[in-house]
Specification:
Two copies of one chain form a homodimer. With 328 residues, chain A is an alpha/beta fold. Chain A has two domains: 12-57 and 157-326, Rossmann fold (3-Layer(aba) Sandwich), CATH 3.40.50.1100; 60-150, 3-Layer(aba) Sandwich (Rossmann fold), CATH 3.40.50.1100. Chain A contains 14 helices and ten strands. Chains A, B: It holds the Pfam family PALP.
């Protein structure tokens, strides 16, 4: 299956170009703070709220960069991808704005709210089983049939460069509104697109800021890869953090292995508790995936104590009829 | 029962003084927009997000103004009040910051999340039945026993002056970040504290801005009062918008009858639908009470079409275990 990694590592200039290219299509999302959560954790937390982003998640950054970077000729057959949800939404949104078709392969178990939103943006869905193997097989058929440009959800230099714009904004906003720099940034890790973009940007503009990844214990392939020194992939992990089930690939592994300081994991209950706490205290709707950073901060208080910590809240596309603390 | 209205009508200067007094104790909450909701309604909506306010609601403005305006002598017995929820929270928060006791009478049916939060801020709760009659009887006993200064949830010039600071900020933020003025402001109406503060401020700084009140059809005493030309009070209305069950009083009636342009009502289902839609699309947690403005805007599209409309999102203290679209 052809993708755009082929091992081109995006540069700092690629990220700057991406930001100029996507600015008309994204929000500069706010940075929120919570006195309650600061008191609870002993850290000073700055939440970069990509749940308020267009299409409801940071993924619109990378998707828009890929879509609007295509030549007219390359764009004529549209784009295609596979995604557990937010990348599908974001690519559909970006393709819709450019007026080109977007085909997406989604697991049949993806939240209904995400499927509805993809259709709302004009995306065409083909369903697969919720495993990496099934997803890749079904997708190969769709790609062959449509001839669309494959925008991988994370293993694509255009996508990584786009995701890197989030940390660029965060660091600018820290200086403008929050009195200076950060000691570390924590982001969830699934396939590693957001973390890789964070590494790309911070290793250039703020190399002293530590980059911490947060992962569900039940989908801890990045953690095990990090400890082993090579990629270990699970086929079908089960976690409430449905955006974080996919494995690292060559491009994201490059950034993770070179720039990430630490990976922490959290249990399902810790993730759900952190999610509910954020809704209660910060009054924001966010997905289980973006509660993983707060869960690991609460779990590892000594590590984060006294630090100024950026937290990437990656998305807010949750099924309001199936909230995890109301099941079972 | 003695309160502080005695018919002193707060002035514009009182509101300015209130803002200086309470600034250290409140957030300047953000103004959010939603392209989706603009397209849906045909209006341009600017949401003043008091769900992000300290103690989770705008009521902290009025409560802080009352608490921090007391002389040391007047403050020695603390403060007391009755409230269906957010005023109780806010007064407890403000009293806690000043280090004086706070006694609150709450209906036993108030959301558990609000009762817990009152206790978390150090407030002392006495429960009553969920009717105006019971609330006032129980409260008279508590006031006599404690000798605390009565801070009425809305029929108090200090409270109205405090709530007026919300529209002052909104109008400032419109000029700074959103390219100018508004045509109208819509706020929910229960006892009328927020609407009265809005009237106080806008009639001075922006007299051309129409002030619209939004009320649950099942607790439409303000609507009926407005049409009749005198206060009509219900004893125990039933609505999902639990912050809006209380009746107008002399001071708030003064502002409503002199400055409100229109009162619209919405059904329970319309309120719940608007609430869920806001959570889905804006990714913010807000109470049923603050969904009433959006519900009436969706219901009366012709009235709001093409207008620049400020919408006061009054609070976000909702019981996450009892969401209204998941009942029944």
């Amino acid at each position: 299956m052809k993708d755009h990694s082929d091992f081109y590592i995006p540069t700092y200039q690629d990220m700057l170009d991406a930001h100029e290219r996507i600015k008309p299509h994204i929000h500069r999302t706010p940075v929120l703070t919570s006195e309650y959560l600061d008191n609870l954790t002993g850290a000073k937390l700055f939440f970069k709220c990509e749940n308020f982003q267009k299409a409801g998640a940071f993924k619109v950054r990378g998707a828009s960069n890929a879509v609007f970077g295509l030549s007219d000729d390359a764009a004529k057959n549209g784009v295609c991808t596979h995604s557990s949800g937010n990348h599908a939404l974001s690519l559909s949104y970006a393709a819709g704005r450019r007026g080109i078709p977007c085909n997406v392969v989604m697991p049949r178990t993806a939240p209904q709210a995400k499927k509805d939103a993809v259709k709302g943006y004009g995306g065409i869905i083909t369903e697969c089983e919720p495993s990496t193997t099934s997803r890749e097989t079904v997708f190969a058929g769709v790609q062959a049939e449509t001839g669309g440009d494959f925008v991988h959800p994370y293993n694509d230099p255009r996508v990584v460069a786009g995701q890197g714009t989030c940390s660029k904004e965060l660091m600018e906003q820290m200086k403008e509104d929050h009195g200076g720099d950060l000691d570390m940034v924590v982001a969830p890790i699934g396939g590693g697109g957001m973390i890789s973009g964070t590494c790309l940007t911070l290793s250039n503009i703020a190399p002293d800021v530590q980059i911490i990844a947060a992962e569900p214990e039940q989908a801890d392939d990045a953690y095990r890869s990090f400890k082993a020194g090579h990629i270990i992939a699970d086929d079908a992990p089960v976690t409430v953090a449905d955006g974080l089930k996919v494995p690292l690939k060559d491009l994201t592994w490059h950034f993770v292995s070179n720039h990430v300081s630490e990976i922490f994991t959290a249990t399902e209950q810790e993730i759900i508790d952190a999610m509910k706490l954020t809704w209660q205290r910060m009054k924001i709707v966010m997905e289980p995936s973006c509660a993983v950073p707060l869960a690991v901060i609460i779990k590892n208080k000594d590590f984060f104590k006294g630090k100024r910590v950026g937290v990437i809240v990656t998305g807010g596309n949750v099924d309001l009829d199936k909230l995890p603390w109301m099941q079972g």
